[in-house]
Amino acid sequence: MTSTAVTHKPVRWGRVAVHLGCLAALLVMLYPLAWLLATSLKPADEVIASLDLLPSHLEWSNYSTALEGVNDVSVWRLLGNSLLIAGGAVLGNVLSCSLAAYAFARLRFRLRGPLFAFMIATIMLPHHAVLIPQYIIFNQLGLVNTYWPLILPKFLATEAFFVFLIVQFMRGLPRELEEAARIDGCGPFRSFWKVVLPLTRPALITTAIFTFIWTWNDFFTQLIYLFDPDKFTLTLALRSFVDASSTSAFGPMFAMSVIALLPIVLFFLAFQRFLVEGMASSGLKG
Fold it and tell me: Cβ(268)–Cβ(206) under 8 Å?
């Protein structure tokens, strides 16, 4: 009789420790989200007084109150305003930043190097340093209390970070493709639109994701330019929700926070694989 020896692989405790550490870090990062969801269903007297994560009973009326909105403006109107601003900002950044990046990455013109360096230097310029001059310009144009100050700058390639991101991606594309298009009679703009732009999709989707999230969560700029409640976004409504109600309305406020969080989560989940691909192929190149 022959016996077969069964070999057991040794347990790699280092790998187990790494996995447990990652799981612990994941739980720590997800706890604020779980707390937000649980608090949105808590009764008013438990939001501040109780430290328990789970509510004593589910208060679904918080969501019905949140859906009514604030200042006689429904949450659907607020959601539409936020989507309008975020969508316009995404469209403006993707178009203008890709055009500027194509000029810096693929075209040859005088002072290209100094202009690109100046553009990169604007990343270090604080947003608050240009807010007052921009406000004066838009006020003189009569555009304050409209959505134009929040959307129009995005069509002027003012986001140097996204220009740099797309430039790094375009520099990795083979120039033979444009040379072949030029032989077929394509000019610079047609080569950009037909050849370069489709190949830059990962970087463009990365730009769209970051622009959507940053614009959706923007509070200060929207607070400066928007006055009328019917033009408020969900971000501004969260602030005025407590002002228009009392301290007992913390439950509906957290319910509205969950509603405001859903579009960002859905947008990120829909395009997150392109985000990883764009950052890996664009931001890490020399």
Answer: no
Tens-place pLDDT, residues 151-166: 999 999 989 999 999 9
Of 245, 264, 207, 203, give the one whose Cα is nearest residue 79: 264
Query: Sign of the CA dihedral 275, 280, 282, 283?
Result: positive
How many of the other CB atoms lie within 10 Å of CB of 260? Answer: 21
**Chain segment 221-267, per-residue pLDDT in tens:** 999 999 998 999 998 888 876 655 445 577 888 888 888 888 888 88
Q: Is residue 255 a contact partner of residue 65, using CB atoms and an 8 Å limit?
A: yes
How many C-alpha atoms does 271 have within 13 Å on its Cβ side? 20
Burial (0-12, 13-18, 19+ Cβ within 10 Å), 156:
exposed
The reported pTM is: 0.82
Q: How far is CA 214 from the centre of its chain?
A: 4
